[in-house]
Amino acid sequence: MHADKHKELDTAAAKSLEGRIWRLFKSKNIDQAITSCEQLNRQFPKYASGWHTASQIAMKLNRPGAALSAIEQAVSAEPENTSWLMQKALCLAQLNRLEALEPLVDHLLPRDLTAAYHCSTLALLLTQLGRREAAVRLYEKAATIRPDEAKHYYNIACLQRSLGNTESAENNFNKTIGLDPSDYESYKIRSELRTQTPTHNHVEELERLLANGIADRRGKAHICYALAKELEDLEEWDRSFHYLKMGADIRRSLMQYDVQRDLDTMASIRKTYGSDLFDGRVEGDGNSEAIFILGMPRTGTTLVERILSSHTQVFAAGELNNFAVQMTRLVKQRCGDKKVSRDELVEMSAGIDFKKLGEAYIDSTRPFTGHTARFIDKLPLNYLYVGLIHLALPNAKIINLKRHPLDTCYAIYKQLFLDAYPFSYDLEELGRYYVAYHQLMEHWNAVLPGVIHTIRYEKLVADLEGEARQLLGFCGLDWQPQCLKFHENPEASTTASTTQVRQPVYQSSVGKWRNYRQQLAPLIKVLETAGIPPDD
To answer: What pLDDT is attached to residue 522?
Structure first.
């Protein structure tokens, strides 16, 4: 038989087997799909699409290392195939191998991409690399190729929002909703883009959606939060809180969470990290790049980050969970495969090599950091690790944001978080969590006097320059007047405060809880019982 005919038959057989693999996978016969995939690649090792299939399945099973190995085989067979290179880039991104990802993305960028999937995939990778303007252009190209797909406009809108282009973002959220009226998250984000007015709001549209019934409970929660936001803008306090509580109750009902576990953990941290651990005998890593901004969410952490990152010597690295990840990794090295409880994890963390933790943390932030004298890690929950941070990186700067307890708790309660802060959807749980946080910060200040620079949100918005000068002084940075013009900082923001940080400082959020004194009664009672008065 002619060699070309052999090749055609082989390709047809390989394609047939590949089709069977996907049918098995989609019908949840995972083991059979994997076995058939191994058979395909053993029988037809030069059939590049088979290796691509193996890589895709490995990624879907959260095995990025295996996925990368498989796609390398496809790339080896066909080095310039765009689909294979895109898949390789996705694997590198999943493995956080950014030093290898960036040149591959640059290699793909000049190509004239004709598939919407390729455009949106490359846009996603550019976003991960922090190149958001280029990502917007590629999502726009994807939308031109497939103008009927809502997800492209949603992606454009989210990026425009992070870049401060709120008017265009609202237009693209409107397009998303027009194409997919069940994209309930888009309604919520659209409501947050600006202050709604009596002549320019979506209240009627949102209430009609609720009245018509929303089967998807998560979707219904999004609409409730959107209504609460818009009605608060219109100063309809009672109606606003009615929808807010409805949304929070739905969100809480969808979660399995026990606040007592978090309270026990914080008590365990206070007990483990006593003053004897900080007597100066411990040697940490001498690196002085990191500035940790922490505290409860919605207390002004993003505002402080923007002030500091407007300085030429400071880079905002975002909300990194690197410190907790590296700490957990070192604890696991000590205990091997043994399963440890949270309390044991806390206890064992006090016995790890602090210098090694500091080094591992700094290394894990590369290659994003290291090109300026200082970088900011703005993960609010790092307040759990203040003691460990100081032991591991004694030259790091730690800044805690403090805001009126009820303004803090109300601002948290009215925010629908993606996955974090499960304590925030029930007023009593929120109050109990706040008390535990308050006690932990009091503990850190007692055992580490002078180490933490505390900023009062109310003082910051009342005297921006005075507080900013103290802040820069604490960080060992010279004064630069552009730090007061943080709202002109072109860098993207991806936090819940992304629209607020595009505006100069305002004081309208101070004391907002007073409009809801009656509705917040369960929260106030918890705080008062703990000795935190509502008018503190």
So the answer is: 96
Q: What is the pLDDT of residue 339?
A: 81
> pLDDT at position 6, please?
43
Cα–Cα distance for residue pair 101/118, rounded to 1 Å: 16
Whether the CB-CB separation of 343 and 262 falls below 8 Å is answered with: no
Share of the chain above pLDDT 70, in %: 94
What is the third-level CATH fold of 1-111? Answer: 1.25.40
CB-based burial, 453-491: b 16+ in 10 Å, e otherwise: bebebbebbeebeebbeebbeebebeeeeebbebeebeb
Query: 1-111 and 260-510 share one CATH topology?
Result: no
The average pLDDT across 465-493 equals 86
Report domain extents, the chain.
1-111, 260-510
Nearest 10 degrees: Cα torsion 142, 136, 86, 363: -160
pLDDT of residue 164: 86
Q: Which of 300, 352, 241, 297 is nearest to 500 (CA)?
A: 300
Q: What strands lie across the sheet with 397-402, from one edge to the other? A: 314-316, 374-377, 290-295, 397-402, 452-456
CATH number given to 260-510:
3.40.50.300
